[in-house]
Automatic annotation (TrEMBL):
One of its GO terms (molecular function) is acyltransferase activity, transferring groups other than amino-acyl groups. It comes from Pseudonocardia dioxanivorans (strain ATCC 55486 / DSM 44775 / JCM 13855 / CB1190). Residues 260-382 form the Thiolase C-terminal domain. CDD domains: SCP-x_thiolase (cd00829). InterPro entries: Thiolase (IPR002155), Thiolase-like (IPR016039), Thiolase_C_2 (IPR055140). This is Thiolase C-terminal domain-containing protein. Gene3D superfamilies: 3.40.47.10.
Length: 385
């Protein structure tokens, strides 16, 4: 088997809300049910899982994907706990299937009932003696990178605002987005929004919301008997620099994080950036979108914001980006957010996105994390030939 014989056959996204009356386990399970139904499969068809156990009822040994075997009521041939969401989970699942450890893998996760009260996110408090007691707001880690970049390229600030306005406007027209109906936005709206941490205003930064997301992965051979056109894995890559949110990010180290991963992924796929039809980038903030264009090879150093404006990243542009409204306007559900990127990429390649559909989309990028987190991952997905 080859990498492009691994297919995503099911997608499930629960309602995305600012605050949910459910808990994290419920939304993860809801998303799993939706993804399995979308794939035309039953839970008994699953023999592998990558799903950080959100509790209650599981063991305290994190992350605990094995606890799902009890909930599903089936034995599992494989579990993936290294990073059980998004692209890393997809790559792990592909490896498990390619080596015969599993035939059908469920990836699910999300968060609900955990936000509010001004607390920092749990993932910004890794088990480090100097960090765990306090944590840090994620925006501050990324602001260190952004400040250095703007010192070198001051003109990028206007471009950042244009990027944020474009993606948020796309999200405002998506009835399923947390920010549905809140736009359209202009760059000036972004610049005039309340400041959070220099240089970011409120509208430069992603949401913190609640909901679940899931995908089902299996072989292309099996996928051809299932309801939807198969979407296959063309290539993938990951750059891991260090544990997220412990040491402050240094611009010189992290600005191009993802470049090695991108070269690997494009080489595996036998294509280049010009072949990508839609980019589901990890838009944790406005500058991070521009940074990814540079790191992934779409443009040269310092040209990210100019590239976004000249190419067009809206639905009518040459490279529609974050077509559901992204983390900026659709949703950011903590550990489940990377899986949202896979879900939107799959739906675009299936042609299921209605008014926000990218015409003729055949190749999509889905990506996760970024410079402030000091790791990055991406996958290239395509329609099965």
């Amino acid at each position: 088997m080859r990498l492009d014989e691994i297919a995503i056959v099911g997608v499930g996204v629960t309602p995305q809300l600012k605050r949910s009356d459910r808990n994290s386990l419920q939304v993860a399970l809801d998303a799993a049910k939706l993804a399995l139904a979308d794939a035309g499969l039953a839970h008994t068809d699953v023999d592998g899982i990558a799903a950080r156990w959100p509790g209650p009822g599981g063991t305290v040994l994190a992350p605990g994907s094995a606890d799902w075997s009890t909930l599903l009521g089936i034995p599992l041939g494989w579990i993936g706990d290294s990073y059980p969401q998004g692209i890393p989970a997809l790559v792990d699942a592909a490896g498990a299937i390619l080596t015969g450890q599993a035939t059908t893998v469920l990836i699910t996760g999300g968060q609900a009932g955990v936000l509010g009260g001004g607390r920092v996110a749990a993932y910004t408090q890794p088990g480090n003696e100097f960090v765990e007691p306090f944590g840090a707001f994620t925006a501050a880690h990324f602001a260190l990178v952004a400040q250095r970049h703007l010192a070198r390229y001051p003109h990028a600030r206007q471009g950042m605002a244009e990027i944020a306005a474009t993606i948020r406007t796309v999200g405002s027209a998506n009835p399923d987005a947390v920010m549905a109906g809140r736009g359209p936005y202009t760059a000036q709206d972004v610049l005039d929004a309340p400041p959070v941490v220099d240089p970011f205003t409120l509208l430069d930064l992603c949401l913190a919301s609640e909901g679940g997301a899931a995908v089902v992965v299996t072989t292309l051979e099996r996928a051809r008997d299932l309801p939807h056109p198969p979407v296959v894995l063309l290539g993938a890559g990951m750059d891991w620099m260090r544990q997220q949110y412990v040491d402050p990010a240094r611009y010189e180290q992290v600005w191009d994080i993802g470049a090695v991963a991108a070269r690997k992924a494009f080489a595996q796929a036998g294509i280049g950036p010009a072949d990508v039809d839609t980019a589901q980038l990890y838009d944790v903030n406005s500058l991070e979108v521009a940074r990814q264009f540079e790191a992934l090879g779409f443009c040269g150093p310092g040209e990210g914001t100019d590239f976004a404006l000249a190419t067009g990243i809206g639905l009518d542009g040459k490279l529609p980006t974050c077509t559901d409204g992204g983390l900026l306007a659709f949703s950011h559900i903590g550990w489940g957010a990377p899986t949202l990127k896979l879900a939107e990429a799959v739906r675009q390649l299936r042609g299921q996105c209605g008014d926000r559909q990218v015409a003729g989309a055949e190749v999509a990028i889905a990506a996760g994390a970024g410079s402030g987190a000091q790791y990055y991952n991406l996958a290239l997905l395509g329609r099965a030939r």
